[in-house]
Write a structure and sequence with these properties.
Length: 134
């Protein structure tokens, strides 16, 4: 990854008011974090009024485990980029200690980007998906 790509990622992080973003490229993985920033500060940094609803939101891993996009290798993925999801809809499964934990959408949105590869180990708080609110 070159410096221009890194600058673009940092700009995206600030513009969207995110506290963390992880980018995977082949075997390489880069996580960029803004530490110590409150949601109110993030909104004002992104040129939005505090309290204004963000257009983009993320779904993060609530636990450490293995990320799966489908219930079994033969099944279709739960969601695909560009798909519209409703609250309660299953987005993925995270397996931890032989227990399969369904991760569900908490709000309505259109999936912009899946940030994790199927079968990849995820960490608590890692951003898994980027969504756009309707």
């Amino acid at each position: 990854m070159d410096i221009e790509e890194l600058k673009r990622i940092i700009k995206l992080l600030k513009e969207e008011g995110l506290s963390e973003i992880t980018v995977c490229e082949g075997e390489s993985r880069l996580t960029v974090r803004q530490e110590g920033i409150t949601p109110k500060e993030a909104a004002s940094h992104a040129g939005r009024e505090p309290g204004e609803k963000e257009r983009v939101f993320t779904v993060i891993a609530p636990l450490v485990g293995t990320f799966y996009r489908r219930s079994s290798p033969e099944e279709e993925p739960f969601v695909a980029e560009g798909a519209k999801v409703e609250p309660g809809e299953t987005l993925c499964i995270i397996e931890a200690m032989k227990v399969l934990n369904e991760i569900k959408a908490e709000e309505q949105g259109r999936l912009q980007q899946i940030l994790v590869e199927d079968g990849e180990t995820v960490e608590y708080g890692q951003v898994l998906f980027l969504f756009e609110r309707p």
